[in-house]
């Protein structure tokens, strides 16, 4: 029996929705209507095609506090109209960093966000979520899920640089992404140590940094938010007398002046994947995400 595949893009996420449709014969990317009533509530209208179909919603969850509720309305409408299943392809999954109660009374918001999304969707596919104290997404998400690595796309992009590359991870949390890229590229890496004192205050212990004469230095992190982690790392690399580094972030969160700050402290280039729209998006991961999504979907539906 063949199933109808309907893909719905959250406004702005159409390029990934089109990549998803293009990589599955017969899948249709259908337009939806989403707007705000004058009082700020969301109006949602979905195409009739969702009835009885397998619906995949494409939505990156940056600025989650404003994007989540309309997304919840889209998922609920799809279900209400009789979709057979509703999955989420979410290139950037936010609310992953507050994964513990660090001070009494704090909310463990990673868990609460997971519980909200699990109530809305049958499955979730994302790219390089910030897994730190939880080694897998399954510890937070009870629905079937898959985490797709950006490492192959990053490696393809970095191969344009001639000569040796050396990778630097600014903190222990970055090690997982740095190791994946180092294995794909066959390049050496160094991991530094970070102490966070506040949202915009970090110290980096760079005692493990070693001078690599003539190498192109690449700092890799999953998220660039305030840019303070990257900026401190750039300063240490320059202080060692190495060449100005390339700052690579998977997810271009970029709060406030983060991108300008990195240029100001001497980064040679600031580059990100297009999981969050930003002028630094030089690395296109849409094909990687589309391919990973359909592979995962086959594991949960074609049994
Ligand atoms: C958390 O540790 C992440 O891996 C990043 O290092 C962090 O989100 C970067 O934050 P910021 O750009 O604000 O220093």
Entry summary:
The protein has 303 residues and is α/β, with parallel strands linked by helices. The protein is built from eight helices and 16 strands.
Describe this protein's structure:
It is a single chain. This protein is of the alpha/beta class and 303 residues long. Helix content is 30%, strand content 25%. The chain has 8 helices and 16 strands. The strands form 4 sheets. A 6-stranded parallel sheet has the order 2-1-5-6-7-8, sandwiched between helices. Strand 3 and strand 4 form a beta hairpin. The longest helix has 17 residues, at 64-80. The protein is globular and about 60 Å long. The mean pLDDT is 96. The structure holds ribose-5-phosphate (R5P). Ribose-5-phosphate is lined by residues 130, 171, 173-174, 202, 221-229. Ribose-5-phosphate binds at residues 130, 171, 173-174, 202, 221-229.
Order of helices and strands: EHEEEEHEHEEHEHEEEEHEHEEH
Quote the average pLDDT.
96
- Unreliably modeled segments: none
Strand segment count: 16
Helicity, as a percent range: 25-40%
Shape: globular
| Largest sheet properties | 6 strands, parallel
**Gyration radius, to the nearest Å?**
20 Å
What proportion of the residues form beta strands (DSSP E)? 25-35%
The structural class is: alpha/beta
Q: What small molecules does this complex bind? A: ribose-5-phosphate
The number of distinct helices, counting runs of at least 4 residues, comes to 8
Distance between the termini: 13 Å
Strand order of the largest sheet: 2-1-5-6-7-8
